[in-house]
Amino acid sequence: MHAVILAGGKGVRLRPYTTALPKPLVPIGDQHAILEIVLRQLSTAGFTTCTIAIGHLGEIIRAYVGDGSQWGLAVDYATEESPLGTMGPLLNLRHRLPDTFLVMNGDVLTDLDYADVLNRHRDSGAPLTIATYARKVHIDFGVLTTDDSKVVAFTEKPSMDYHVSMGVYGLSRSTLEGYTPGLPLGFDELVLDLLNARNQPHAYEFDGYWLDIGRPDDYDRANAEFTTRKSLLLKGA
Length: 237
Known about the structure:
By secondary structure, the protein is α/β, with parallel strands linked by helices. The chain has 6 helices and 13 strands. Strand 2 (27-28) and strand 3 (32-33) form a beta hairpin. The chain starts with a strand and ends with a helix. Pfam families: NTP_transferase.
């Protein structure tokens, strides 16, 4: 099984932590970087090869991970010379990828079964499988529904339920056909193109532990919770 880890972003929302470190290498707990946790998890799940798409401070990632042998993986790299969006880096890799593979952000902290995501993707026959997580958003205001300047409904401080992308995907190489290597391609653009073509992605619903380390509050929470979650996140460590 093969995985592609997207690790080329600048991590702007996580500054100042990412001023000198790429976001996937910010430490979690006393001994581990996020990317190390992900690589350990992939190896434990049965993945044998991995490509890391690097850009901003990418040489630091390359120096830290090396060939991946310390985690039982064969790791190679793809360098992003300019920002290509979430899916854009895959276009330059297409000739090196298997028919189906896992794609994920390099800053995800979760106990998701990555192998099951990929296996379910293969079984579904879908062009894309999106790992999803249920979120509840609380609105701190009274919400008005209006029509022609008239208030027709009112809800006091409602809660709204959403399924959000976890930043982990099963993808088929054939799904990338028709896109031009070297040009940006966002996850949003790919999903909308598939929907417009009536070629619906598959949803892999997950209700375990998941944190997207995108903001300082999320990062602080991850560090606060890691000690009690370590055995869950790093099975056998």
